[in-house]
Amino acid sequence: MRSKLFVPGSRPELFTKALSSEADAISIDLEDAVVEARKAQARGAVSDWLQQSDRPATEKWIIVRVNAMDTAHFAQDVAAVVQPGLDILNIPKPQSAEAVREAVHAIAQAEKANGVTKPIRILLNIETPKALREAVTLAKADPRVMGLQVGLGDLFEPLGMDRREVSAVQQVLFSVRMAAGEAGIDAFDGAFANVRDVEGYLAEANMARRLGLSGKTCIHPSQITLANQAFRPTDAEISHAMKVVEAVEAYDVAGHGAFLLDGQMIDLPFVLRARNIVAIAKRLNLLVSH
């Protein structure tokens, strides 16, 4: 999921339109993008759209961000949007592993009530100091947790931290990626609010990719191309990865655990990364010329 297009839950006219974008996923928001007075209306609109029989078929992941578990809206959100058309439930501000398991129980009940047969996965937002400190525990709370997502606005602003302070952003991205890595799941970068700052978005997305994150949120369609560009393996990376994968087969036959390729020592960690790059390239149809 290189790119995830953010769509306000109060704008149902945009839901289907978002499916025609180049984003890998759409994320319909019932939390910050919807004012209190319109929460129920937005919830109903999302539920109705997910249940539409004539909704266009799509390979994109459909994600809904619900309101936090400590709000009066959480239970109603889950009961309404856990539908057969939903892939991932995005939970903001998780407080503990136990709270995540409580959310899983609520999701399972809604699945049973709404006839959902494919288990819905969970994306957890890391956007409070406590969540950052306990990110590993949250990531490992339940097998349904498929990823951690950084929320720098919610994390930095209340603490008076500069959202553009690169060293701080770097530390958070690194910590979240390590936590997700320990749990064997993906980590995703969050939103970049200045839509006009193309260079700023690309710089942050490229940094996130270098730190091993898998994708970034897009709050405007103009950011989709930037995210897809940043989180796409480069041609040079693909070429090198293909050489590693091809070479390792020969060296495996010869019984060598490590070998030199273009002057670089290659052993298991490098092989695993190469195989991952090749798998991503195949999924993105980037291996036509190889």
What is the strand tally?
10
Give the class from helix and strand content and strand pairing: alpha/beta
Strand content: 15-25%
Question: Can you tell me the number of structural domains?
Answer: 2
Shape: globular
CATH homology superfamily name of the largest domain:
Phosphoenolpyruvate-binding domains
Distance N to C terminus: 23 Å
Order of helices and strands: EHEHEHEHEHHEHHEHEHHEEH
CATH domain class of the largest domain: Alpha Beta
Supply the CATH architecture of the largest domain.
Alpha-Beta Barrel
- The CATH topology of the largest domain is given as TIM Barrel
Radius of gyration: 20 Å
Q: Tell me the number of helical segments per DSSP (H or I, 4 or more residues long).
A: 12
Q: Low-confidence runs (pLDDT<50, min 5 residues)?
A: none
- Biggest sheet features: 8 strands, parallel
Residue share in helix:
40-55%
Order of strands across the widest beta sheet? Answer: 7-6-5-4-3-2-1-8
What is the residue-mean pLDDT, rounded to a whole number? 93
Task: Give the arrangement of secondary structure elements.
Blueprint: E1 3-8, H1 15-19, E2 25-29, H2 39-50, E3 61-65, H3 74-81, E4 88-91, H4 97-114, E5 121-126, H5 129-133, H6 135-139, E6 145-150, H7 152-156, H8 166-183, E7 186-188, H9 198-210, E8 216-218, H10 224-230, H11 235-254, E9 259-261, E10 264-266, H12 268-283
Parallel strand pairs: 1-2, 1-8, 2-3, 3-4, 4-5, 5-6, 6-7
Antiparallel strand pairs: 9-10
Helix pairs in contact: 2-3, 3-4, 11-12
